[in-house]
Every structure is written in structure tokens, then in C-alpha cells.
Model the fold of this input.
Amino acid sequence: MKIPVTVLLILCSARSFAQQGTWEGTKDWKLYKIQGNKAFRLKQDSLLYIESVPLNEDSLKTFLNSSGAWPKEKYSLWMGSYLASFADSAGLLHKVDISMYGGFFFDERTKTYFQVAADMKNDWLQFMSRSYEKLASP
Done:
């Protein structure tokens, strides 16, 4: 059975991204005007129709580079979330659920949880809250 080259490249890049946790090649980070359970149910292709703001990528990558991936068997319960997205170095869109309280987030494409470093958690939560406030202001 032959696997098309495109499918093979997508599988390898998603797997490699999740294992390495490399954020430098990511771009076009956006935060959407949607929270909670609605965010989890929203299909990725619907992101085009949701109001969004770009996230400051320099600040964001400082937080992300401090983060680490959880083991695949670890998961978390949610109490509030933000919805974000980014494009990886291959141009693939990733939908990301961000905890409003826990300092962790979930990349839906790679099915991987990441945790921001404990000493940066409060700053991360403030960064996300302030970014979301931009959506609420006229």
C-alpha cells in the first residue's frame, strides 16, 4: 500500500512538532472571541468566521518556550477556556484550547497538552486575559 507523500509529510510534521515542542516556526497566532464549551465544539474551518485579534508573538513565544508537553496519557478537566490558533512551519492550522485558570493548553491537531512553566503561569494568565479584553473593547 502506498501512502501519498503529502499525507506522510503531514503526519511526520505533526508528530515532530508535538515531540519537540518547537514554537519558533509558528506564526499567525490569533485569539478568538469565543469561550468555554462553544470553543471545544467549534470546527477548525469555522475559525474564519469568528472575530479574532492577533496575539503578540514575541511575548507569546517567551511563554511557549518555557512550556513542556505532558505525557499522552495525562489530561485535564476544564473550567473555562480561550480559543486560539496558529500556523506551524508547514503552514498547517492548529486549533488550541487555552485554560483560563490552569496555565495549560491543548493543541487539537497533535492531541497534546502543554503546561507553561510554573514561575510564568500568572504572567501567562494575565497576558491571555488582557489579549481577550481587546476583543471586548469597541
The longest strand covers residues 27-35.
